[in-house]
Amino acid sequence: MMCLEKGKPLYRVERKIEETNEPFDDGEHIIYVNGADKDASTELGKLMHDFFCTDPDDMNYKELADKVRYFKEDEKGVATMCKVMEDMRNESARDAKWKQVVESVLRWLSMGLSHEQIAKGEGITLEQVREIAGMKRV
To answer: Does domain 78-138 bear CATH number 1.10.10?
Structure first.
């Protein structure tokens, strides 16, 4: 497990070629931001404060406060946020249901049922059964 709790506001991660210790310059750069660093004397600390703040009146950055106000207080913003949350809930429910189907199909496969029998029994397509069967070998 990677631990970045070194008290720094940012952690820059660059890739390198292990054998030569040379940079692997593929254009990928990873920056981890320490969300616990809310040092009000730095711009990043102020931003982290705002990210964790629930009251737009207590925020440092007007642009962010205005957006929070919009999504929390404006009728259109609240409706937009409700729709986003509903979509996320629905996606999560679909993912959970699909996971159950995958587990069930894998059990049926281990018992020797044919792809056609499983598709009919689970109410999914033959192609989906084949896709899941391919996962089993991975």
So the answer is: yes
